[in-house]
């Protein structure tokens, strides 16, 4: 393509890995990627973690993170191959012709400097414009990105604005020197779901109004479908499919892309209401040393063999509810009935059976398992602890559990560090299951996983529920997950349950304002969805 | 796994010192306490490192001194680690009042220079090896307490510790089975450093006359006995001093290597 602003030709990126206790190993991160971006167009890079998205993104300014080498192919920017350019040429290019928006704005800003100073820094240092011009441009960009008080927000420090606002300020920083190309590296991933679409809409508008070209990196196909003109699907550093957004979303050719598009389409019919196994009654709780309640008069029930999904943004009290139920945070009022008994408020007052029948699975499987214990020890401990199993009986049961989570017996001798993210979460599920629980609390168990892997975990959880008749209290901020797994839903907002009932009732109108906001914030695999939602919703997100 | 040259050197030297200490009786050419030459004889074929202030063979005394120095330092380090790390873990796991009380006691002990505390205690208590080991071990355990508490606090906020608590595990299981294996690497590295401090501490005490008592000897005591010779250009005091320095450096090289391995260990969570 002749008018391409940026084109990669047969790009190859390599690195040296240093696995602990082993010899350094040579790895190829990206191989044979050929793709181009025209002026004013947005290319979406999508793939699971380790697919090489960010590595390719950074290579657009001929940069590689520590130890990463751009070893082959061409990176042509404005007709010049920058892969082999010298340091001086790159210095004048980075921050002026190509700029970068990182995932975590909070970690990328200097907390000791005012926002304006940081936004205009590269524009002034590259001599693109004077300080006064840069400030005027920054203010107009703030306005374009619909930040509140665009004239004065630059006088604030990073901690004085919300996460969503900070992400937009960083976008303004990237757009300020009038670059040819902006690299967006997962700019909305760290934000709450309701804030995400505001930021997404602002970024999209700013891209169109300034006419800049962009690389948009994300793992969420539904998000990239809203902003990109073309999409490149990557896997293990290789191209899977490269096509227009319309083509990828509506008629994907490769099986991998098809799987990505159809993810979270698990069909789960809700079960009929039944008498509860867990009943949370008028629970109010606050953290020690604070003066406000993080849970306010919460009432929810979970029926045996069914799933109650607790939905809400971060800070809504979802995880605190789990802590109250498990006894880690004794409630200041209310009581918790479990399997016909009233549970002691405090963990230390609970019987072994209370503990055994109420299990928990965590968001970060990495830190939920002792890195110095093998899978066999991790799964075997509850067997030994609750049932006194030892020797051969224990080994057989471990094998049985490993089979149930669709992993072979060979995994029993492995350490957590030798497992993939999905396998780690499966082991955590097996550990919970080993106790033969009546209820498992699942705290954001799929949110740290890649979509396809998360899908596998959800299917596994549903299968296990059918076989073991175990109930789930499923905490999540992701409504697509809720649709896939829940029988009942409780929507939480600022420590209160604002909507509660059977899944179909909660998900059918009329909605209260908050539920409407939450439901409308989940990106859908549909072109033009973003504009439709921004126009029709009733309430702005709290982070806005 | 490749061992860097510095660590290899440290391992060889440390191993050599240990060997000498264990087999002192068989290696030393002369008994520890018999006068076999003149006062401050120069090194010769019969006395490789010369003789000391009353004509005893320095090499032999150095070899026996290694045994005492290393034994006392090792015993007190083991004591300080057992005591310090157990209490440190306990403070981290229990938190609240237990943590407050233990931490403030440790602050109190650390507020007074250990050498002064040790001198006072040793002037009151009977002077023998057991008392010496106990005093050094207890004083040193405050440092170990600080480190192990810090490491354990980091570990105890991990979800796997919460999972163990929710399972209903006892405190001892949490300390010994969940926390200890993850805290081991930094503690082992620290052990090397504390061992060196113990060597220096005993040497200091012996130099001042409150450590190892005659007829036994250690390196610090030997420096003390022979320091008068320095005025006359006799090097007898420098030999044990050099031995102390060499031991300190070689153990440090090993400790450094262990520490660098810890921080590069993924999932080690102790660095």
Average pLDDT of chain B: 86
Backbone CA Rg of chain A? 25 Å
Q: Largest sheet of chain A, if any?
A: 6 strands, mixed
Secondary-structure content class of chain A: alpha/beta
**Total domain units of chain B:** 1
The rounded distance between the terminal residues' Cα atoms of chain A is: 40 Å
CATH classification class of chain B: Mainly Alpha
Spell out the helices and strands of chain B N to C: HHHHHHHHHH
CATH superfamily of chain B: MetI-like
Oligomer: heterodimer
Total domain modules of chain A: 2
The parts of chain A where pLDDT drops under 50 for at least 5 residues are: none
Q: What CATH architecture of the largest domain in chain A do you see?
A: 3-Layer(aba) Sandwich
Q: What is the helical fraction of chain A, as a range of percent? A: 25-40%
Beta-strand content bin of chain A: 15-25%
Unreliable sequence segments of chain B: 264-271
Short characterization:
Chain A is of the alpha/beta class and 544 residues long. Chain A contains 21 helices and 20 strands.
Can you offer a commentary on this structure?
Chain A is of the alpha/beta class. Chain A folds into 2 domains: 4-261, Rossmann fold (3-Layer(aba) Sandwich), CATH 3.40.50.300; 278-371 and 437-508, Rossmann fold (3-Layer(aba) Sandwich). In chain A, 37% of the residues lie in helices and 24% in strands. Chain B is mainly alpha-helical and 271 residues long. Chain B has a single domain (5-263), classed as MetI-like fold. The longest helix of chain B is centred in the first third of the chain and has 37 residues, at 58-94. The interface between A and B is medium-sized, with 32 and 20 residues.
């Amino acid at each position: 393509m002749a008018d391409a602003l940026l084109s990669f030709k047969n790009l190859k990126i390599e690195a040296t890995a240093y696995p602990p206790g082993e010899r350094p190993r040579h790895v190829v991160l990206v191989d044979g990627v050929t793709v181009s971006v025209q002026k004013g167009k947005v290319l979406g890079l999508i793939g699971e973690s380790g697919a090489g998205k960010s590595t390719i993104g950074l290579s657009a300014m001929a940069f590689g993170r520590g130890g990463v080498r751009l070893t082959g192919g061409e990176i042509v920017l404005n007709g010049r191959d920058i892969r082999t350019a010298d340091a001086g040429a790159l210095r004048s290019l980075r921050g002026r012709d190509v700029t970068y928006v990182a995932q975590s704005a909070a970690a990328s800003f200097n907390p000791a400097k005012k926002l304006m100073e940081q936004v205009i820094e590269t524009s002034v240092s590259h001599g693109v414009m004077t300080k006064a011009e840069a400030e005027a441009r920054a203010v107009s960009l703030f306005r374009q990105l619909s930040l509140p008080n665009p004239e004065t927000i630059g006088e604030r420090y990073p901690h004085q604005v919300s996460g969503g606002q900070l992400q937009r300020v960083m976008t303004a920083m990237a757009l300020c020197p009038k670059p040819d190309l902006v690299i967006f590296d997962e700019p909305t991933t760290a934000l709450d779901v309701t804030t995400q679409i505001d930021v997404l809409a602002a970024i999209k508008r700013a891209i169109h109004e300034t006419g800049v070209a962009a690389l948009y990196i994300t793992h969420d196909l539904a998000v990239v479908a809203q902003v990109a003109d073309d999409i490149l699907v990557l896997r293990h550093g290789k191209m899977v499919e490269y096509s227009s957004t319309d083509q990828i979303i509506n008629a994907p050719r490769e099986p991998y892309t098809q799987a990505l598009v159809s993810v979270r389409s698990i069909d789960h019919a809700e079960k009929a209401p039944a008498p509860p196994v867990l009943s949370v009654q008028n629970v109010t709780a606050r953290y020690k040393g604070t003066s406000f309640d993080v849970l306010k008069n919460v009432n929810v029930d979970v029926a045996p063999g069914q799933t109650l999904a607790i939905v809400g943004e971060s800070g809504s009290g979802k995880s605190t509810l789990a802590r109250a139920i498990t006894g880690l945070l004794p409630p200041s009022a209310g009581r918790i009935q479990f399997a016909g008994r009233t549970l002691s408020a405090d963990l230390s007052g609970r019987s072994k059976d209370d503990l055994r029948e109420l299990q928990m699975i965590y968001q970060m499987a990495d830190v939920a398992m002792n890195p110095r214990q093998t899978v066999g020890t991790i799964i075997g401990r509850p067997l030994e602890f609750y049932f006194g199993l030892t020797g051969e009986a224990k080994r057989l049961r471990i094998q049985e559990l490993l089979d149930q989570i669709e992993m072979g017996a060979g995994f029993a001798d492995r350490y957590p560090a030798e497992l993939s993210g999905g396998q780690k979460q499966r082991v955590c599920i097996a550990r919970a299951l080993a106790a033969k629980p009546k209820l498992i609390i699942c705290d954001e168990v799929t949110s740290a996983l890649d979509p396809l892997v998360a899908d596998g975990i959800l299917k596994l959880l549903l299968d296990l529920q059918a076989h073991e008749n175990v109930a789930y209290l499923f905490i999540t901020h992701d409504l697509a997950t809720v649709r896939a797994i829940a029988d009942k839903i409780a929507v939480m907002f600022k420590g209160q349950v604002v909507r509660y009932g059977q899944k179909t009732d909660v998900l059918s109108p009329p909605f209260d304002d908050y539920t409407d906001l939450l439901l409308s914030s989940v990106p859908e695999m549909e072109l033009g969805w973003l504009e439709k939602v921004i126009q029709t919703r009733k309430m702005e997100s709290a982070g806005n | 796994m490749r061992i860097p040259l510095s660590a290899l050197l440290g391992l060889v030297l440390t191993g050599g010192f240990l060997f000498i200490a264990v087999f002192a009786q068989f290696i030393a050419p002369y008994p520890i306490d018999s006068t076999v030459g003149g006062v401050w004889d120069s090194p010769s074929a019969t006395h490789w490192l010369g003789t000391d202030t009353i004509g005893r063979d320095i090499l032999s005394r150095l070899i026996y001194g290694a045994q005492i120095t290393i034994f006392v330092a090792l015993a007190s380090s083991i004591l300080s680690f057992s005591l310090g790390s157990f209490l440190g873990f306990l403070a981290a796991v229990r938190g609240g009042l237990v943590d407050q009380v233990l931490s403030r006691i440790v602050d109190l002990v650390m507020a007074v220079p250990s050498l002064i505390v040790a001198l006072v205690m040793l002037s009151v208590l009977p002077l023998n090896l057991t008392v010496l080991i106990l005093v050094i071990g207890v004083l040193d355990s405050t440092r170990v307490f600080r480190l192990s508490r810090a490491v354990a606090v980091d570990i105890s906020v991990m979800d796997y510790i919460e999972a163990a608590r929710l399972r209903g595990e006892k405190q001892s299981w949490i300390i010994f089975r969940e926390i200890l294996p993850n805290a081991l690497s930094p503690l082992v590295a620290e052990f090397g450093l504390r061992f060196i401090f113990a060597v220096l501490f005993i040497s200091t005490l012996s130099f001042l006359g409150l450590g190892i008592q005659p007829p036994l000897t250690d390196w610090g005591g030997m420096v003390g006995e022979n320091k008068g010779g320095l005025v006359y250009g006799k090097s007898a005091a420098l030999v044990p001093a050099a031995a102390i320095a060499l031991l300190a450096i070689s153990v440090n090289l090993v400790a450094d290597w262990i520490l660098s391995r810890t921080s590069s260990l993924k999932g080690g969570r102790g660095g």
